[in-house]
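Troubleshooting log. The previous structure file for this entry was overwritten by mistake, so regenerating from the original sequence record. Sequence copied from the archived sheet and checked twice against the printout by T.R.
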Amino acid sequence: MTPFSNRITRLFSIDYPIIQAGMIWASGWRLASAVSNSGGLGVIGAGSMYPDVLRAHIQKYKQASTRPFGVNLPLLYPDIDKHIDIIIQEKVPIVFTSAGNPSLWTPRLKAAGIIVVHVISSAKFARKAEAAGCDAVVAEGFEAGGHNGREETTTLVLVPAVCSAVSIPVIAAGGIANGRQMFATMVLGAEGVQMGSRFVACEEASSHPLFKEKVISSQEGDTKLSLKKLTPVRLLDNEFARQVQAAEASGADTETLQQLLGRGRAKKGMFEGDMAEGELEIGQVSALLHDILPAATIVRNTWNEFQQALAHPLGS
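Regenerated output below.
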């Protein structure tokens, strides 16, 4: 495959503008290194890692790949300062921040020579990320599995709105799992895509095999945006998701929802494989996924499909 050049590939020093999202309990060093070694950008998901675990994953990544990589860092994480210290000490080249105010940590990361990308769900927050000094933004639509905006703006609407609002490069996310969808978002102005759900259903993902199987067997309508009073996420249908929906329908307050969520609910489902009582975060595009593939195959298929769409945009 011939390398592609645009602002995103040049910013990250990668061959193809395909970014693997840093999903909790799925995006460890194995997945990140497999994606980066295939020409995309692999990302380690720090949101489900204690500081010492994050350091271990970064160091193992460096043993498996010499290609650029990133770390996804939810800014609401309680040990955020420790994670920042490790990222700087280990010379992580790229950081994707999410779920918080980018102006709090972007200056320190930039001072350490780190490329900073912030995940946003509206044009307003895109402008704030640009003002904070971020090098790019991920415009993540309502279809996505995690960090969804309360505005519920779909990717098809969000991407062009964000592209019009900022001058920095825009990466599209939410509902993207193949090259045709990638082509559509690039037509709208995006210069790259971030895919999460497609890489959850991946051989190298650290998510539990039962979760992967449930993802690829899901149908349209099997996911719903939930926990909007806390941090909105899209949940795959199971007993826990139905409990959340019932609580929200009855007007439960944030304290009640927090008690229902408890601690370790996401780990219980996505990492340990409890398909009934675990929290199962996944995007709407899971309904289009039917196989568990190696990361290299996902990158290759996505790029080949993009090239075919580019050559024949009207299906001719």
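The chain has a mean pLDDT of 94. Archived copy saved in two places this time.
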